Automatic annotation (TrEMBL):
Origin superkingdom: Eukaryota
GO cellular component, one term: mitochondrial matrix
GO biological process, one term: mitophagy
SUPFAM superfamilies named among the record's database cross-references: Dimeric alpha+beta barrel
Protein name listed in UniProt: NIPSNAP domain-containing protein
Family, similarity comment: Belongs to the NipSnap family.
Residue ranges of every copy of the NIPSNAP domain listed in the record: 177-274
UniProt keyword annotations, A-Z: Autophagy, Mitochondrion, Transit peptide
Segments for region (Disordered): 1-20
Coiled coil start-end: none
Length: 276
C-alpha cells in the first residue's frame, strides 16, 4: 500500500530499505498488469506474411483497378458517352478477361471527376493480358487519343478486396454511392482489417455495403469503402443507426488512430454502370 511505502522511506536501516523496494516493485508490477497492460489489449500480433495474403479473398483471384479522371467541365457529357461505348465493347468481347464493376461522376467532393472500378478475373496475369491486347487494338488507341483531349489529369490504383466485405455485384437503382477513402499509417493494415472484420456486421441491415478494397500499387496503405444509399437523407439515417448498436463505437475508437487522412466522395452512377 502507499502507507507501507511512506513508512518504509522514513526508516534508514538497510532491511527496511530493502522491504520498501520490494513493496514498490510489487506495486509497479501490479500496475503493469492493470491499466498499463490494458492499453495493449487490442494490439495485433505480429504476422510473418504479407497483408495482401492475410486480408484478401482466397476463393477468388480477382484484381481491381480504380481510375480517377478529372475531366474538363465542358467535356463531361461527351466523355461519359465515349467511355460508355468503349466499356460496353470490352464487356461483350470475351477475349478480354476484364469487366467494369461501376462508373460514376462525383456529386460532392472533387468536381467534374469520373471514377471507374474494373475487375480483372485471374489477377495480375489477366491484367497483363488485357494490356498487351489493348496495345494492338486500333479502335482503343483512337479512343485514348480522343479521351486525352477531354482530360485535365488522371491517376489509378491496383486493389485487392477484403475477404470480409461483400462482393461488388450489379444492383438495381436508383442509388447514390459514397466512396470513403482512408490513408492509413504504414504497418497498420492488419489491425485495420481485424477491426473491420467485426465492424462490418453493423453495416449490413440496409444492404448499403457494396465493397471494400485496399491498394497494392499506386498510393499505398489506402483503403476504399464503397456504400450505396437511396438518398443523402437515407445515408444519414443509416449511419446514425450504427451508433445505436453496441460495439460500433469501439470500432471507431480503435480505428481512428490508424488513419493519416480520409476523404468522402458522393457519386452518381453513369447510365452504363452495372452498379445503379
Amino acid at each position: 500500500s502507499l502507507q507501507e511505502i511512506t513508512q518504509a522511506t522514513h526508516k534508514p536501516d538497510r532491511s527496511t530499505k530493502t522491504n520498501s523496494h520490494r513493496v514498490i516493485r510489487r506495486f509497479s508490477e501490479s500496475s503493469d498488469k492493470g491499466w498499463f497492460r490494458s492499453l495493449f489489449v487490442h494490439k495485433v500480433d505480429a504476422r510473418k506474411d504479407a497483408h495482401s495474403n492475410l486480408l484478401s479473398k482466397k476463393e477468388t483471384s480477382n484484381l481491381y483497378k480504380i481510375q480517377f479522371h478529372n475531366v474538363k467541365p465542358e467535356c463531361l457529357e461527351a466523355y461519359n458517352s465515349l467511355e460508355a461505348e468503349v466499356q460496353n465493347r470490352l464487356h461483350q468481347d470475351k477475349d478480354y478477361p476484364c469487366e467494369v464493376v461501376g462508373s460514376w461522376n462525383t456529386w460532392y467532393g472533387e468536381q467534374d471527376q469520373a471514377v471507374h472500378l474494373w475487375r480483372y478475373t485471374g489477377g495480375y496475369p489477366a491484367l497483363t493480358e488485357c494490356l498487351q491486347k489493348l496495345k494492338t487494338n486500333k479502335e482503343y488507341l483512337e479512343f485514348r487519343k480522343e479521351r486525352a483531349k477531354m482530360l485535365i489529369s488522371r491517376r489509378n490504383q491496383l486493389l485487392l478486396e477484403f475477404s470480409f466485405w461483400n462482393e461488388p455485384l450489379p444492383r438495381q437503382g436508383p442509388n447514390m454511392y459514397e466512396m470513403r477513402s482512408y490513408s492509413l499509417k504504414p504497418g497498420t493494415m492488419i489491425e485495420w482489417g481485424n477491426h473491420w472484420a467485426r465492424a462490418i456486421k453493423y453495416r449490413q441491415e440496409n444492404n448499403e455495403a457494396v465493397g471494400g478494397f485496399f491498394s497494392q500499387i499506386g498510393d499505398l496503405y489506402v483503403v476504399h469503402h464503397l456504400w450505396a444509399y437511396e438518398s443523402l437523407q437515407s445515408r444519414e439515417e443509416t449511419r446514425n443507426s450504427a451508433w445505436l448498436k453496441e460495439g460500433w463505437d469501439a470500432n471507431v475508437f480503435y480505428t481512428v488512430p490508424l488513419i493519416r487522412s480520409m476523404e468522402s466522395r458522393i457519386m452518381i452512377p453513369t447510365k452504363s454502370s452495372p452498379l445503379q
